[in-house]
Amino acid sequence: MLFSVLVETRLRPGIADPQGATIERSLPHLGFEGISGMRVGKAFRFSLEAADEATAQAHADEVTQRFLINPVIEDADVSISVVEPA
Amino acid sequence: MPPRVGVVLFPGSNCELDAMEAVRDLGGAAEVLWHGDTSLGGVDAVIVPGGFAHGDYLRPGAIARFSPVMDAVRVFAADGGPVVGICNGFQVLTEAGLLPGALQKNVGLKFLCATTTLRVETTSTPLTSEASVGDELRVPINHFEGNYTCDADTLAMLRSEDRVVVRYLDNPNGSVDDIAGVCSAGRNVVGLMPHPERACHPLLGSTDGVVLLRSLLASAAASVR
Q1: What's the domain range around B213?
Q2: What residues of B are in contact with residue A15 (Cβ under 8 Å)?
Q3: Among A66, A70, A14, which residue's Cα sits nearest to residue B153?
């Protein structure tokens, strides 16, 4: 089966986010009001071949935890969907 | 026989020659450790130098930590061998789990290239054994992601175990607790963002890095195996 994987990462709570802070500071100058809590993360999209959904989820979780994020400072949400059924 | 210092070379490292030159100027022997090698060839100390290993893609150090040579560095470190990561090398060692914490983008989002003043906080590491606590050293930084961060528990542990090695007097990048360098629980692995090898000759504007690299050579000489 072919799965589509989306990994969204964000800095863990309490970890300073210089990019988010800079963006948030610039918003009022551009006329955007009422925006707070700006945090910048990354998104990874890829395809994954696996026998079934549980296996696909496990593989996607492993590559995320071992390589795509630094668990010291980042969290991630991993979502998968079927592209081609078996 | 002078102590032998191995300098790890990843694709994208760019401070390995500076580090080797500085080691040789101080009477040590220096050699390249190729990132694809699985052995350190019997060196007495390891420097993981600055640069942009593997282009810093994904995160600085995120790819370099999987290089074959890093398994050998891990074994060498576990055996008590002196290992120093400078700048990108510090980032590699944190990604590899050999040092706690992580290096984030600088507060202010500027690439910083400047001389900083460091305060030596402990002398019980292979990088500071010949210095004195309170020594103030002028050493340059050259980084975009040098903002040291860790959770509150880790910071408390680093402080209580005297593992903050050097602090900035005038914090340039937002690092927690002004931290410029830390050491491992075993104290033999040290990482710092500033470049001592670039402060080893009057022509470079400072010779304050000499005491740090002389310390490393003394540790290397003591660890000849």
Answers
A1: 4-222
A2: 104, 149
A3: A14
> pTM of the prediction?
0.94
Q: pLDDT, tens digit, for every residue of B165-224? A: 999 999 999 999 999 999 999 999 999 999 999 999 999 999 999 999 999 999 999 986
> Which A residues in the span 38-67 are in contact with B, Cβ-Cβ below 8 Å?
67
Set of chain A residues whose Cβ sits within 8 Å of the Cβ of B107 = 16, 18, 21
pLDDT digits (tens, 9 = 90+) for B23-69: 999 999 999 999 999 999 999 999 999 999 999 999 999 999 999 99
Of B95, B121, B145, B197, the catalytic one is: B197
ipTM (interface predicted TM):
0.86
Under DSSP, the state recorded for A29 is G
Q: Which of the residues B91, B99, B149 would you substitute to probe the A interface, choosing the one with the greatest number of A C-beta atoms within 10 Å?
A: B149
Domain of A40?
2-84
**Is B21 known to be catalytic?**
no
Q: Which residue in B15, B35, B87, B145 is the catalytic one?
A: B87
CATH of the domain at B144: 3.40.50.880
- Candidates B118, B93, B99; CA nearest to B172 is B118
